[in-house]
Amino acid sequence: MTARDNSRALLDVLTEPLARMGLDLEDVQVSSAGRRKMVRVVIDKDGGICLDDIADATRDVNAVLDSTDAMGEMPYTLEVTSPGVDRPLTQPRHWRRNVDRLVKVSPHEGMAFIGRIRDADDDAATLAIDGTEARWAYTDIAKARIEIEFSRPSSATEPRQPARRRNGPKRSATEAVPADSPGREDKE
Question: What region does 168 belong to: left with phi over 0, alpha with psi -120 to 50, or beta?
Answer without folding.
Answer: left
